[in-house]
Write a structure and sequence with these properties.
GO terms for molecular function: 2 iron, 2 sulfur cluster binding; chlorophyllide a oxygenase activity; iron ion binding. By secondary structure, this protein is of the alpha+beta class. The protein is built from 9 helices and 23 strands.
Length: 556
């Protein structure tokens, strides 16, 4: 029955039951068996005749057989050496790019090891939960004890899960930094290779000229030429859908006059409630239509009462015979709380982009402003966060420290990424939208290293509509994933607008100065640095669009 090499533990009960009640004998025997079963021990009982009437005679024995421990199938996943002992020591030294890359590599190895340990902790805690809930073991614990043990395990599991999420976020951040450093290394290698090619003695003047041309072509672009005076907008920039108004601002009997690409337009709702956009100029005497009114889905000129539908057709001419007259109209649609127009000459695309805030956010403010600056300069400003500690010292960046290094980390081909060291994600979405998500703990304070580590967030949408050469229509929408009660506080919309105007005024005094100098010939992108990456990419995208490039950069 037993193998020779099988370890055995024999527990022998020497209790005699002859003097006890028969039911007690049976109950005691069953308890002993249940106890051994709860310990997952094989049970072998040997006793004399079991007679409930005459009590138990003889003795019973419990044998426990311990085999080899089961090997965890996931063991190889967690048996990873702690890399901290191998980290190179560069404390107090200025690192070159290769040393910094080596340190970053060990950082990722450590974070990977840390994440594995976190997952292992969760697995072990789950095993403890299984042990606590073992049906046989529960027979010997009170309900209060079980509740206490489960509550403690639940808290430990919650803490372990939080730690896993933090580790995941840290690994992601470290990988992004490593990718950025690899890009720097590749640039350095390319420059070294180009320098070596130029330094080699050439056999002929033509070979030398080719080497110089190769070096010039391979060198990264040092600056962008964005100098004045401000020019008219290129027609290619018109061939996009532009959100020009919020739906909440367009009632059935109201109209919204706008200027887009130096042309006047007016938006109003037709009889069916759908919005339309027509030229803001009467076909009769060129009177501005927005000075009139909307009657039964038609906009009426205040001069002689001519009325136009949303497609521009004149349907009413008081005091004269009706003529076949029509004013210009452009495609206009409503989607997700915004009014969109297509001002270009090319056929509009079939779908409208979505600008809704992420899931879990509620819109708290929708604000429209007319600003006296060219829309490209405003986009340059919105795509730059490094200026915040110096410019916005009276508003949202009050009390911010000045980091030793600010970077915008993004894939090699893309128009979105995040700011380091700020917990802010940002994206430029062509042709004129900037979306950002900011991790916050309380007003004026930032929390964590990235947005994933923050418990509360603010989401912003900025739409910069090109009105004229030196004028931009700005649509701003602010959403929060916390404090929904703020939506129901009276006059809160006015407070949000006041704060937004304060922030913009801090920027405007600088950007207006830029515009004045640009009109006199200054280049506003003379010496871009690392934290200008997103703004530079916007300018490169716009330059390629205006040149008519078939494949626009950063479009993937």
């Amino acid at each position: 029955m037993w193998k020779k090499d099988t370890p055995r533990v024999k527990v022998r009960s020497c209790l005699r039951f002859s003097s006890l009640h028969p039911r007690f004998h049976l109950f005691t025997a069953m308890n002993a068996i249940a106890t051994a079963s709860a310990l997952t021990l094989p049970i072998f009982c040997k006793a004399s005749k079991l007679d409930t009437r005459k009590a138990l005679k003889g003795r019973f024995r419990v044998f426990a057989v311990f085999g080899e421990e089961k090997k965890n199938a996931w063991g190889a996943l967690f048996h990873v050496e702690d890399p901290r002992s191998k980290v190179p020591h560069y404390k107090g030294k200025f690192l070159d790019v290769y040393q910094a890359l080596e340190v970053a590599r060990y950082d990722i190895q450590y974070l990977d090891w840390r994440a594995r340990q976190d997952v292992l902790t969760i697995m072990l805690l789950h095993e403890k939960v299984v042990e606590v809930l073992n049906p046989l073991a529960r027979e010997y614990k009170s309900i209060g004890t079980l509740k206490k043990e489960l509550a403690e395990l639940q808290e430990e599991l919650a803490q372990a899960h939080r730690q896993v999420h933090i580790s995941e976020a840290r690994v992601t951040t470290a990988l992004d930094k490593l990718a950025y450093m690899e890009e720097l290394v590749n640039d350095r290698l390319l420059q070294d290779r180009s320098t070596a090619e130029v330094a080699q003695p050439s056999s002929s003047p033509s070979t030398s000229a080719k080497s110089l041309e190769t070096e010039k072509r391979r060198k990264p672009r040092k600056n962008l030429d964005v100098s004045g005076p401000v020019q008219s907008y290129h027609p290619h920039l018109k061939n996009f859908w532009y959100p020009v108004a919020f739906s909440t601002g367009l009632k059935d009997d109201t109209m919204i006059p706008i200027e887009c690409f130096e042309e006047p337009w007016v938006i109003f709702r037709g009889k069916d409630g759908k919005p339309g956009c027509v030229q803001n100029t009467c076909a009769h005497r060129a009177c501005p239509l927005h000075l009139g009114s909307v009657n039964e889905g038609r906009i009426q000129c205040p001069y002689h009462g001519w009325e136009y539908t949303t497609d521009g057709k004149c349907e009413k001419m008081p005091s004269t015979r009706l003529l076949n007259v029509k004013i210009k109209s452009i495609p206009c649609f409503e989607k997700e709380g915004m009014i969109w127009i297509w001002p270009g000459d090319e056929p509009p695309t079939a779908t409208l982009p979505s600008l809704l805030p992420p899931s879990g956010f509620e819109v708290h403010a929708e604000i429209v402003m007319e600003l006296p600056i060219e829309h490209g300069l405003l986009l340059d400003n919105l795509l730059d966060l490094a200026h915040a500690p110096f410019t916005h010292t009276s508003t949202f960046a009050k009390g911010w420290s000045v980091p030793s290094m600010v970077q915008f980390l993004t894939p090699a081909s893309g128009l979105r990424g995040y700011w380091d060291p700020y917990p802010i994600d940002m994206e430029f979405r062509p042709p004129c939208m900037v979306l950002s998500t900011i991790g916050i703990s309380k007003p004026g304070k930032l929390e964590g290293q990235n947005t994933k580590e923050c418990s509360t967030h603010l989401h912003q949408l900025h739409v910069c509509i090109p009105s004229s050469k030196q004028k931009t229509r700005l649509l701003y929408r602010m959403s929060l994933d916390f404090a929904p009660v703020l939506k129901h506080i009276p006059f809160m919309q006015y407070l949000w607008r006041h704060f937004a105007e304060q922030v913009l005024n801090e920027d405007l005094r600088l950007v207006v100065g830029q515009q004045e100098r640009m009109n006199k010939g200054a280049n506003v992108w003379n010496s871009p640095v690392s934290y200008d990456k997103l703004g530079v990419r916007y300018r490169l995208w716009r330059d390629a669009l205006e040149r008519g490039a078939k494949q626009l950069p950063f479009s993937t």
